[in-house]
Design goal:
The protein is mainly α. The chain is about 80% helix and about 0% strand. It is built from 15 helices and no strands. The longest helix is centred in the middle third of the chain and has 18 residues. The radius of gyration is 20 Å and the shape is elongated.
Length: about 250
């Protein structure tokens, strides 16, 4: 491990991305082969290798960074690794948003997905607030909050929503009922949805999804997220084709 890491960093010192990448992948490959449990030191080493490629310019270095992190996630899905991947996709979003709208949207969705696995509600909410406006931030934040909920993580789902609410001077910790009514409709929906998930209230869940059907349809993967939440919290089984959508969403 030490030899592969040292060799990779040496190659990067000489701007030789092509030779550095196989050594980085060998490092992660050994971790996978040995089923090495994660430790702070090993995760820090993997991130150091990824950062080495990040520091270099050009598409080859960007691809190498993605390859190393993808291999690392295949070895272990530690939250710290997902946090590093989230940061990478946020950077790619910033780089592509003015030149390729389709690619930038893909990067943003990947950022949201990895920030949720990394359990980073503050990072998710603040990054969206700083980069998007109006309907854009509302929809993407709602999708992120629902992703947290779909991972059985209501704590971070509420935390992400709370960041947005405080940014707009809505006190969800005080007069919740009135504060929720002041949120945009799609965020009002997710606020009610989170409260419903905290209770055994299947009829209320079904009523909410019917009432806010239009908002759900415009959310990124809205139907699949609602279906996953319905199954997890209320035992409402999705149709077979919807289960395929849910599986694809969480695999990607």
């Amino acid at each position: 491990l030490d030899t592969a890491k040292a060799g990779c960093l040496r190659m990067l010192d000489h701007d030789n991305v092509e030779c550095a990448l196989p050594l980085a992948l060998e490092y992660v490959g050994v971790l996978t082969e040995l089923a090495q449990p994660p430790s702070d030191a090993i995760i820090a080493s993997v991130i150091e290798l990824a950062d080495g490629f990040k520091a270099k310019e050009g598409g080859a270095a960007q691809d190498a960074e993605e390859n190393v992190l993808a291999a690392a996630l295949a070895w272990n899905g530690a939250t710290a690794l997902h946090g590093r991947v989230a940061a990478m996709y946020l950077r790619h979003f910033d780089e592509s948003r003015k030149t390729d709208v389709s690619a930038s949207l893909q990067m943003l969705n990947k950022f949201i997905a990895n920030a949720c696995v990394a359990e980073e509600p503050e990072l998710l909410a603040r990054s969206l607030i700083e980069r998007l406006a109006g309907r854009g931030v509302e929809m993407m934040l709602a999708a992120g909050v629902m992703r947290f909920a779909a991972r059985m993580n209501l704590r971070d789902a509420n935390a992400a929503l709370g960041v947005y609410a405080r940014h707009h001077d809505h006190d969800l910790d005080g007069d919740w009922a009135n504060a929720v009514k002041r949120l945009p409709p799609v965020l009002t929906f997710v606020a009610y949805l989170l409260k419903t998930c905290e209770r055994d209230a299947t009829p209320l869940f079904q009523s909410l999804t019917e009432r806010y059907y239009g908002e759900i349809q415009v959310l990124p993967q809205g139907d699949a997220l609602v279906a996953k939440i319905g199954e997890l919290y209320f035992g409402v089984r999705a149709a077979p084709n919807m289960m395929d959508m849910i599986t694809n969403m969480f695999n990607n």
